[in-house]
Design brief:
The protein is an alpha/beta fold. It has three domains: 88 residues, Winged helix-like DNA-binding domain superfamily/Winged helix DNA-binding domain (Arc Repressor Mutant, subunit A, Orthogonal Bundle), CATH 1.10.10.10; 98 residues, Periplasmic binding protein-like II (D-Maltodextrin-Binding Protein, domain 2); 96 residues, 3-Layer(aba) Sandwich (D-Maltodextrin-Binding Protein, domain 2). 42% of the residues lie in helices and 21% in strands. The longest helix has 24 residues. The radius of gyration is 24 Å and the shape is elongated.
Length: 298
């Protein structure tokens, strides 16, 4: 079957790379902005691939071009194949291959990046800030080698090594904390700053606030490090991972507790795709090193 398929004129490395460029850019126009000739080429090549493989790779929804299930599967296969070719070439010339890893911005900021070094990055590394769900999807699709994610993300098809638990607490400056006691209503009236990249983590706190006060958060930020900066400025209370204590010394900042509030915890895991390790001779070593170095404090 392999022979006849590869002999079809619509299947070629160039067409597969063009297809992958369109998938990664989420559209033909985005894959070749301001280049109508290349956009036309991409469109034709994708049509030829679909005809040769006898599958639909994209579907249109208004002006959007959406990847089908068959398209996502092909993208993963192509990424694996291209990565394997790169590994062969790098092995032949003894060139190291950097690994890629994603995690939430707060975990990168306060835990992952400070612990990457020595044997871990001797061959190079690239990190990317993504939500747990997006990071797991990127590993599953072969766009990244590893991710550190919450266990409530969709981890089907991925290998995992649990690395511990991240705890969260409400932080405020000592001056701001003095404005509130353990009284629920007084706490709820503090100006709160919340991050938007992982909205599910805010739900418990928002629910507690709204029981006592109809007010909305005073400030919305994209990430936890931005929340930390707002808390450091002194004008806001904010929910943060307790890893942020490194930047919020106890002599100047307090951890606030709402009456009846339970500790917010998130179990974390290092995840990877088993098949992807077959293209990395050092894959097992990397898994072991990452799991040991990134294990969270008890």
């Amino acid at each position: 079957m392999n022979g006849p398929l590869l002999e079809r004129t619509g299947v070629s490395l160039e067409r597969l790379r063009s297809f992958l460029a369109v998938v990664d850019a989420a559209g033909i126009a985005r894959a070749a902005p301001g280049q109508p000739a290349r956009q036309s080429l991409y469109s034709r090549q994708i049509g030829e691939l679909e005809a040769a493989l006898e599958v639909v790779l994209f579907e249109r929804s208004g002006r959007q071009l959406l990847v089908t299930e068959a398209g996502r599967l092909l993208a993963t296969v192509v990424r694996d194949a291209l990565r394997g070719l790169e590994t062969v070439a790098q092995t032949a010339r003894q060139a190291p291959r950097p690994f890629t890893l994603a995690a939430g911005d707060s975990l990168l900021h306060w835990w992952v990046i400070p612990r990457l070094g020595g044997a871990l990055v001797k061959d190079g590394a690239r990190v990317e800030a993504l939500s747990s769900q997006d990071a797991a999807a990127a590993v599953h699709e072969g766009r990244l080698d590893f991710a550190v994610v919450r266990l409530d993300a969709d981890l089907r098809g991925l290998e995992q090594s649990r690395i511990g638990v991240v705890e969260y607490a409400v932080f405020a400056s000592a001056q701001l904390a003095r404005r509130a006691s353990s009284n629920h209503a007084e706490l709820a009236r503090l100006p709160f700053v919340l991050q938007t990249s992982e909205p599910s983590l805010n739900e418990g706190l928002v629910s507690l606030i709204r029981r006592a006060s109809p007010q909305k958060p005073a400030l919305l930020c994209e990430t936890f490090p931005q929340v930390c900066r707002a808390v450091q400025a002194g004008g806001y209370a904010g929910l943060l991972p307790t890893l942020a204590r490194a930047e919020l010394p106890a002599r100047r900042f307090r951890e606030l507790e709402f009456p009846g509030q339970s500790k917010l915890r998130a179990a974390m895991a290092l995840v990877w795709r088993k098949k992807a390790l077959t293209t990395r001779p050092e894959g097992e070593r990397l898994v072991s090193l990452l799991a040991s170095q990134l294990t969270l404090p008890a």
